[in-house]
Amino acid sequence: MGLWDSLLNWLRSLFFKQEMELSLVGLQNAGKTSLVNAVATGGYSEDMIPTVGFNMRKVTKGNVTIKLWDLGGQRRFRTMWERYCRGVSAILYVVDAADRDSIPIAKSELHDLLTKQSLAGTPLLVLGNKIDKSEAVSKQALVDQLGLELIKDREVCCYMISCKDSVNIDVVIDWLIKHSRTAKRATTIKYFGVLYPKLLNKLVVIR
C-alpha cells in the first residue's frame, strides 16, 4: 500500500470516529436533563430532580460520541454558562414552551450569553420543549418572542420537541450528528494541511 492510500485510510478512520462536545443551557425546569435522557435512552421520568451546578454525560449514537454538559438553570448558576460553552461544537438552548411567563427571561439570558466574545460563531440550537401541553406556544411565536431572527453572527436552528412523548428527538439527534461531521471534517482538513500542505488541494477535491 502506497503513502497516498495510507493517508486516505487514516483520514477515513478519523471520519468514522467522530466526537463532539455540547452544552445544554436554559432556565430551570425547561427540561434539559430530560432531553439528555431522551437522547441517551429514549426514557422519560416525571420525577426529575433539577440539576444543581452541572452534570456531564457521554452518549454514543452510531459512530458519534457526544459529550453533554447539562448546566443548572437557576439564577445563581447562569454565570457558569459561558465557561462551559467555550469551545463546544454547539450550544443547545432549551426553553419551556408551555411556560409563557418565562420566555421573556429566557430571551434575555440567551442574548446576554451570545454577547460573550468567547462564544462568537458557535452554532445555536434552540429547543422549545413541552409541546405536549396545550398551553405551549407555536414555533413561530417562540422564534419571535426569543428574537432569534435578530441573531446574525452564527447558525441558528429551532425545533419544537416533547421529551415526554419523544416528539422530534430523532430530529435533534440527526442535527447533532450532522454537525459532528461538519466540525470533524473542518478540523481534519486543517490538521492535514499543516502536515501535508502539498497534498491538501488534491484531498479537498476528493469528497
Automatic annotation (TrEMBL):
Q: Where does Mg(2+) bind?
A: T33, T51
A GO molecular function annotation here is:
metal ion binding
PROSITE patterns per record: ARF, RAB, SAR1
Q: Name one GO biological process term.
A: chromosome segregation
| Compartments (UniProt record) | Cytoplasm, Cytoskeleton, Spindle; Late endosome membrane; Lysosome membrane
Q: Where does GTP bind?
A: G26, L27, Q28, N29, A30, G31, K32, T33, G73, N129, K130, I131, D132
GO CC terms on record? late endosome membrane; lysosomal membrane; spindle
Q: Which SUPFAM superfamilies match?
A: P-loop containing nucleoside triphosphate hydrolases
SMART domains for the chain: ARF, RAB, RAS, SAR
**UniProt entry keywords in alphabetical sequence:** Cell cycle, Cell division, Chromosome partition, Endosome, GTP-binding, Lysosome, Magnesium, Metal-binding, Mitosis, Nucleotide-binding
> How is the quaternary structure described?
Interacts with tubulin.
What this protein is reported to do is described as: May play a role in lysosome motility. May play a role in chromosome segregation.
Its family remark reads: Belongs to the small GTPase superfamily. Arf family.
Q: What protein name is recorded for this chain?
A: ADP-ribosylation factor-like protein 8B
Give the originating organism.
Answer: Oryza meridionalis
